[in-house]
Structures
1.
Amino acid sequence: MTVDRLGYLGFDASDVDAWSRYANNTLGMMTAAKGKDSDRYRLDSRAWRLAVHRGEADDISYAGFEAADAAAFNSTAERLRQMGYQVTNEPDDLKADRGVIDLVSVIDPSGVRIEVYYGATELFEVPFVSPVGVSSFVTGEQGFGHIVLATPDLEKSMEFYVAGLGMELSDIIDWDLGPGGKHKLHFFNCNRRHHSLALLPAPAPKHIHHFMIESASLDDVGRAIDRMERDSRILLTFGRHTNDHMYSFYGITPSGFAVEFGCGPRDVDRSWSVVRYDSISMWGHKFISPE
Ligand SMILES: [Fe+2]
């Protein structure tokens, strides 16, 4: 009885208006709601997937992991408590804010607020329409996409996400950053998506390194590259990852961390074995330094 997917993300952003333009016009997300201090965006039939809150951190504020039902939700919360984590039963007003039936929160070993919930709000009566014509985002059973978080204590973070939330290790990449040293990137799955979470065991300026959204077609990715070049800045060129086989590129968000926009990855299945790699990419994903 574990979490089944990454469901939603919240960011703290110093420029929510820039995020609004970026989410709609560059990434192709649909606005779900505009508030005084936060805006919400949709990727699919869910009422919302991304919340951008006015704040100074320009970092991840919370990540919501979804359990299938009350039994999985309760057993995950109980397991975290037995491991010694302080798990907070959130009040009705926050459950209503998130649009979920039940909700707990806990701080992970790297200091990121993790919310575990079940019973999110579906909004089939208001169809998802991308304002820039992204055909669709791949979510559903595989959830939002993925996040990569920096952690100062890989062992503790792994214990939290594997023994606590019930995720499984997919693989490890020895990522050679040249003068930045080598880092053992660890990737974790909780459904067919190769990873919903990756951990970067290195000191980093922000908790989040990047988040990933997956579109249905290569044309969606190509058009996103065009929009990113027009509106913003590309961080890593189009390429294909060694482990999930995703075709993707990376852009810089208005908060300074990155976003990966991709398509066409392979799934993990029951025949999957944990392996390791010496490179993050088969080809491409070349760093573009700012002018
Ligand atoms: Fe990624």
2.
Amino acid sequence: MGIKRFVRKTIAVVTAAALLSPLLASSAYAGPTVPPFNYAEALQKSLYFYDANKCGPGITGGRLEWRGDCHVEDTEVPLKPMGEEFVGLNLSREEIEKYRAVLDPDGNGSLDLHGGFHDAGDHVKFGLPQSYTISTLGWGFYEFRDSFKQINEEEHMIDILKWGNDYLLRSTFMNDRGEVQAFCYQVGEGNIDHNWWQPPELNEKAKVQRPAYLATAERPASDQAAGAAASLAINYLNFKEKEPVYAATCLKTAKALYEFAVKYRGCGYSGGFYNSSYEEDELSWAAVWLNIATGEESYIEDIISVSANGMYTGFLGRIISSTENGWQNIWVHSWDTVWGGVFAKLAPITNTERDWYIFRWNIEYWSGIQHENPNDTTFLASTPGGFRVLNTWGSARYNAAAQLCALVYNKYQPRKDFTDWAKDQMDYILGDNPMKRSYEVGYSDISAKHPHHRAAHGSKALSMLNPLEHRHTLWGALVGGPDGTDKHVDETTDFVYNEVAIDYNAGFVGALAGIYESYGQGQEPLKDFPPKEEDFLEFYSEAKLEQENAERTQITINIHNESGKPPHFEDKLQARYFFNISEMIEAGQSIEDLKIEIMYDESKIVDGKGVTIKGPFAWNEAEGVYYVELDWTGNSIYGDREFHFALVPKMDASWLTHWDPSDDWSRKGIIKEYSITQNIPVYRDGVKIFGSEPEGEVQSEKGDLNGDGKVDSIDYSLLRRYILELDSDINIEAADLNSDGNVNSADLAMLKRVLLGM
Ligand SMILES: [Ca+2]
Ligand SMILES: [Ca+2]
Ligand SMILES: [Ca+2]
Ligand SMILES: [Ca+2]
Ligand SMILES: [Zn+2]
């Protein structure tokens, strides 16, 4: 398989761009551009980002027509040290032997680590953002489930939660005693993956290796394992009513992962992309949810236990030295530091003034609402437009997570000023801001349109700049957001202002659900969402004239696979060039007097095998119409492939050639520059998928494999050779005598009977 790294043919690019844009019905960008905003629609759309970022088999045919199965190689990650090829695991041979029985119970030599979500605009499955995202989505659902029900998105959310949590279950390897021996927290390698700006469906495992990173006793990653434990504990709570067996599996695994995380302490690897600060927050996040799920006090003890002199020995010791001390959280619930979520759930359990203070102070810090101590003026900076910015790289995600915390606070202790603040910030995100831009993609017609996201952008040239406009709308994605001056840059290349990521949308979904509950009652989601994208030419041929005179016609055909619903490779493409040789026949020549010359076969260079020329075959022999078939079968193609060839008549006995291209069907409309050529039809495995064949098609006569108008022993010999795979140059339709779609010995037997007159 091959993707060309750069597109060299300007004209071809322009042609394709003209065909492919614009793709969308604008009616779905129905969201308001000024307040009051429709939170039902904003929440509805926000979920679709997770459909866009699903990884693995089982995607094709889902909610987004432009997403298909990807990275299916994750189902079989080889059980071997990854080595310098980055294929396999982060474990040594000795470690693999130690854990072999647990890692590979079916003994097929590999691990199944499919599923989960692509991290952002890239396709690595990074551990901390993955578990943060799935746990925080579950948290939002746990707190505001009715909102999802009321906008008819409960089933959708359940699908997303299962997709994520099932991946965490699959990534957990336990022994017979139910003890975790290994937990896979990362599949893929940032420094490899990030070189390939292409849709995930086009990932070629030989080029973009996806090693797997496992936590074990020897290689602890308690931040990663605890994050997953938290998510699975929440998932238990979300599913225990409707699916108790599944929920029990989640809880059992959550407990085991937590034990594993507590026993083997340390932080995991990310290749520098998501450096982990420490693990006590994820351990607390898991512990607090396990307490809610089981009622067992020991989990809370693990967080808040103290020594005889009141010094914290539990996880809180990371941030607070003793029970005499308080803490002010100047960060937020985020992929690296989940203390925001921890105190939101811990304060109602411990119910100490100190823990409520920590929970509340953080929301006051974010919102600018006066702290209880009137002398405390420690607040987060605001943009001139009123948006609170913690960090300019993805500012909106932190803000949305802070909104979620404020909305959850209000569930315990009604604080309308907190929820009003959250709504105010959400309104800024949805378009009420100095840029007059919505930071939710696809929400309204003022939404950001160029998120840094490979699948939605759909480049065929491995370039963020090609095409200029995204092929698909990344419905509901929260882009990075504004900087401290309310400025935002809506450019595909800009991953600071305009990246999207699973952790960005996690707090956003929960916050929208909370805001819908308080401010969106009566609002309606969109019907029939998402809209079908407009059809575009996925397969076609272009051609240009290279040279033509009385002795030849020389052209280049460029065959295209521009598939996008979803994008995929094709390895059985064919094209047919039809022509009329009546001028040769009138001069006493036949099809035997025509030669095919090949000047350039791009596929041979890019894909290895190259084009097989078949024929010429008679199409309408009475009128002298023939065709040659250019067969790319065996070359896995995405994008386009050029084939430069010539039809060259031989000279007759008088040293004359007889060549008149003006009556040649496929020659019509071909000029010096590339243009799309309806008369050079394109086929997939023999079935026409583009263009038109000459009128007056004469059905190929069954048995006349070489198209010479006779059914005779030559055809029999050809068919026998074809079945023995000695020859492939036959008319398949004619060879399929019993018309069952296969050419095999049954056809040979039938042809024999025909020849024997039986
Ligand atoms: Ca296996
Ligand atoms: Ca952490
Ligand atoms: Ca002709
Ligand atoms: Ca024949
Ligand atoms: Zn994938």
3.
Amino acid sequence: MGSPADCQPEIPGLYVSVPFCRGKCRYCAIPTRATALPPAERYRDALKREAAAARRPSSGFGSIYFGGGTPLTLSAAVLGRILEDIRGIFPLVEGAEVTLEANPGVLGRGDLELLAAAGFNRLSLGVQSLDDEELSFLGRIHTSGDALQAASWARSAGFRQVGVDLIYGFPGHTIHRWRRTLDRVLSFDPDHLSIYAFTLEPGTYFQTAVREGRARLTGEAVILAMDKAARERLAKAGYEYYEISNAARSGAVCLHNLRIWRGGDVLGLGAAAHSLVSGRRWRNIADAGAYMKAVEETGSGAVGTHLVDREGEILERLLGGLRLDEGIPFSILPNGDERFEESIHSLVTDGFLETAGGNIRLGPRGRPVADSVILEVAAALAP
Ligand code: SF4
């Protein structure tokens, strides 16, 4: 479990969205409801109804990922019961990866023991920083001590893999502090790291603060230096980047996310979940209350269902696959489109893309500016 070869594209994954959080982080634009008391049992019931109405994959699901939001706002006991409901409805591949995203501020030792006993085997901790001033500035509800404690409890509770999420390059962030967080994180030897550069999202506290001159964005040169510092530090510690923002110890890649980046099928349950099943894509209603009402009345919270055509499929594979170290197979690219081929050729000549075996992937000049390169490739594809 956990190496790229273990991610078989024909086996689908299951995503469970829990759109509730205790508070609102200052950088986050995810449509979650901030509450200490979500309607946990009603939400569980809606998930169960939606699952019961969905088609069962004959192979079983190869991975389950509980994300959000902060799933633990529902409580560890309710999450355990939701996992039990899912297992009663869908077949699972033996040894399936079952991930829980967890906020260290909503997590006790007993919770982790209960979750591990219920069948969760991979924990993705939203650590973000190990500097208490930064955590408070970002609007996080936990301290660095909470995060370190949660990681240690997760290990002793028996989770097979413990991963952490980090964020860098937010207003006022310095390379010195970033290096210190990296060193502290690596001291507890996580299996997996997701490391994202700060982006200024619409509707967030930071967007207003920047507009009003109360915060200043970190410059691009510093962001690039932070990315370089992380890559060097992680390489020295024996991690490999398998995606532009994700690195893992050997055998510890996140199979669920790899499936998505490779264009595999994923059924999404819960408010705001997205699904891709047998060439059909849809999303669920984002508002939790409206989602529960729709499922209670019709058995489904889906909106915007459409078939993905060939062009859409290529575009999705490009957007996901070019983020991967392995890249995407040439065979999925359009054949005989002169404009597209010219554009790819010039990106390869300039070192932004490179060929490796039968695949095309980001080149050395392309990795630091991945989003721009991917957008350029996508634009060349547009009719
Ligand atoms: S805990 Fe996660 S989902 Fe919730 S507000 Fe913070 S960043 Fe957003």
